[in-house]
UniProtKB/TrEMBL annotation, chains A, B:
Pfam families: AP_endonuc_2 (PF01261)
InterPro entries per UniProt: IolE/XylAMocC-like, Xyl_isomerase-like_sf, Xyl_isomerase-like_TIM-brl
Name this protein carries in UniProt: Sugar phosphate isomerase/epimerase
This protein's UniProt keywords: Isomerase
Organism: Ramlibacter cellulosilyticus
Taxonomic lineage of the native organism: Bacteria, Pseudomonadati, Pseudomonadota, Betaproteobacteria, Burkholderiales
Xylose isomerase-like TIM barrel domain ranges (all copies): 33-277
Length: 292, 292
C-alpha cells in the first residue's frame, strides 16, 4: 500500500467538493487555480461546471497547468419512461464521452439512473428490474461508442439509499456482473468506480474488489460517513470525520494493483460548502496525508 | 398469493406506526383499543411501549382481546466497546426473549446493532468486521437461550444506510449466511424478518427470499420508500405513497409458503405521527386492501 503521509501526489479533487465557497457558487476556473496553487495534481470535474466555464476553456486550463483528470463526472441516467427519453439519454451520454475525451479523462464515471421521474419526486413506475434492464442496454450501446473514442466507462455503484432516484446499480457485485456480461474479456473498456461512501457497508466488499482486479478498478473516491447523517445526498463527511475505515478499503484496492488517484468527493450543504474553498482544500490535503 | 382486497384479516400493526397521534405520545393500551375497534387482529409492539404500560397489563389486554402478535420489537444491539457492554446486551436480550414469550409472540425481531457508540454520534471504532463478529457471537449465545424458551429469533437485515448506527446486517444474503452458520438444520429457531423498506432495492432479493424458504421467513413488514426521503430514520411512507412494488415482493415471500401477517411499520415524524392515530389506522387498512 502506498505511503500517502509525505505528500499529496495522489490526491485528486472532485470539483463538486468545492462547488461552493462560503455558500456561493465557485466557478471551475477558480477551483482549478486554487488546486494548482496547492500543488494538487488532478481533478475530476462535473459536466455542469465544465459547461458553465466552456469546454474549450477548461480543456486549455487543464493542459496549461499540466493537470490530470482522475475521472469525468458524469454519464449515465439511462432509464426513461419512453423512447424519446431513452434516445435523449443515449445522445447525452455520447456527448459526455466526447467531452471526457477532449479533457483526456481516464474514464467517464456512470451514475446509471433509477426509476424514471423519481428524482423529480414522481416515479413513472415501480419496476426496478425494468430500470436495471434499461441500464444494461444503455451501457451496452454506449460501450460501443466509448470504445471507438478509447474512453473507459466506470460504473459507479451508488449507495442503496439512491436506488430509487439516482442509481439502481447498488453494489460492487452488481456492477461487476454487468462488466462480466458486457465486457467478458476484461479489455479495460468497462470497469467500476469504487467510492467508499457508497460501498463501505457491504459485507462482500473485500471479495468483490478482489474480483474486480486491476483491469476493472478505474477510480477510487473518498469521503466519510457521518453519524448522524442529516441529509441523504448532501451531508457527506470529510475523511476522518466519520466511521469509514478508509485505509483498509484503499489497501484492498491497491492490493489489486490500483495505483491511481484518491479522489475526494464531498457534497456538504451544511458544512464544507459553507466554508471557504481554501479551507476545504487545505483540509483535504491534510486528511489525505493522515487518514486516507 | 393471498387476496387481501376483501378484508384485513392478515393486517398487523407495528405499534411504532401510531406511537404518536397528532404529535403526542399514544400509550400502548390506547393503540390496542383502537386496533381492536377496527377489527385488526394482530400487533407488533415495541419494548419501550410495553414497559411504559406494564408487561402484565399488556399481556392481559392482548389475551382479553384475542389479539395475536406478528412479532416483538426488538432484541439485538449486540456489539459493544467492552466486556461489560457485551454482557449488558446479553442480559437485556434474554429479558426480551422472556417478554416475547409472555406475550406469545411468534418471534423476537433482532435489530443487531452497528458500531458501538455510533447511535450516540461517537463510534468507539471503525471496525465493522468486528461488530459483525460480535453480532454473530451474540446471536449464537442468545439462540441457546431462545430455543429453551421456544422463541424463534428473526434477524432483520436493515437498509445499508443504518449500517453504522443500527444494524451491520444489511442484506437478506448476509442474514441468511448467519442462519446457515448458526442453525444449519433449519429448525425454525432462527430466521429473518423481511421488511420491504430495507430490502426492496436489493438485486438479489428474489433469489434470497427463495433461499430463505418458509422455515426462515418469520415476519413480513411493509411501508414505502418516498422520493425524496427527508430523513434517514423517520420519513417512511404509507404503502402506496412511494416506489416499492410491494405486491411483487409479497408474491415472492408467499411463493415460499409464508402465510402470516403483513405488518405495517411506519416511522414518520413529519406526516403520519402528526395525524390522528384513527386516520393512520384507517389508512393502513385501506392501503392493505389495495396496494399491499
Amino acid at each position: 500500500m502506498r505511503d500517502f503521509s509525505q505528500d499529496h501526489r495522489w490526491l485528486s479533487i472532485n470539483t463538486a467538493t468545492v462547488r461552493k465557497s462560503k455558500g456561493a457558487d465557485l466557478p471551475l476556473p477558480d477551483i482549478i487555480e486554487a488546486c494548482v496553487k496547492r500543488g494538487i495534481r488532478a481533478i475530476s470535474p462535473w459536466r455542469d461546471q465544465v459547461q458553465a466555464a466552456g469546454l474549450a476553456n477548461v480543456s486549455k486550463l487543464v493542459r496549461t497547468h499540466g493537470l490530470e483528470l482522475s475521472g469525468y463526472c458524469r454519464g449515465g441516467m439511462f432509464p426513461a419512461a419512453d423512447a424519446a427519453g431513452l434516445k435523449a439519454a443515449r445522445d447525452d451520454n455520447r456527448r459526455a464521452v466526447d467531452e471526457a475525451a477532449e479533457l483526456r479523462a481516464p474514464c467517464l464515471v456512470l451514475v446509471v439512473g433509477g426509476l424514471p421521474g423519481a428524482l423529480q419526486g414522481k416515479a413513472a413506475h415501480k419496476d426496478i428490474a425494468l430500470a436495471r434492464s434499461q441500464v444494461r442496454d444503455g451501457i451496452a450501446e454506449l460501450l460501443d461508442y466509448a470504445k471507438q473514442a478509447r474512453m473507459p466507462l466506470a460504473i459507479e455503484p451508488l449507495h442503496p439509499m439512491y436506488a430509487a432516484d439516482r442509481a439502481c446499480v447498488n453494489t460492487m457485485e452488481q456492477a461487476l456482473d454487468l462488466c462480466d456480461e458486457l465486457d467478458p474479456k476484461r479489455t479495460g473498456a468497462l470497469g467500476v468506480a469504487c467510492d467508499v461512501y457508497h460501498v463501505w457497508w457491504d459485507p462482500k466488499l473485500e471479495q468483490q474488489i478482489a474480483r474486480a482486479g486491476k483491469e476493472r478498478l478505474l477510480a477510487f473516491h473518498v469521503c466519510d460517513w457521518l453519524t448522524p447523517t442529516a441529509d441523504l445526498l448532501n451531508d457527506r463527511g470529510m475523511m476522518g470525520d466519520g466511521v469509514i475505515d478508509i485505509p483498509r478499503i484503499r489497501g484492498w484496492v491497491e492490493a489489486q494493483g490500483f495505483a491511481g488517484y484518491s479522489e475526494v468527493e464531498i457534497f456538504s450543504t451544511g458544512n464544507w460548502w459553507q466554508r471557504s474553498h481554501e479551507e476545504t482544500l487545505d483540509t483535504c490535503i491534510a486528511r489525505h496525508k493522515t487518514v486516507v
